[in-house]
Amino acid sequence: MTNITRNPPSSVLENLQLLEADLDSKIPFKKLDKNLLIATWNIRSFGSLTRKWSSEEDDSPKRDLHSILCIAAIIKRFDVIAIQEVRANIRALRDTLKILGNHWSLILTDVTKGDKGNGERMAYLFDTRRVNLSGLACELVVPQEWKDKDISENALQTQFARTPYAVSFKSCNHTFILVTLHILYGKKSQERIPELRAIAKWLSDWAGDVNAYHQNLITLGDFNIDERGDLLNKTFLKEGLYVPEQLQAKSTTRSIFDETKYYDQIAWFKNSKSVPNLSMTFSNAGSYNFLQVAMENRKLEKRTISYMMSDHYPLWAEFKMC
Question: Where is each Endonuclease/exonuclease/phosphatase domain found (predicted)?
Answer without folding.
Answer: 39-226
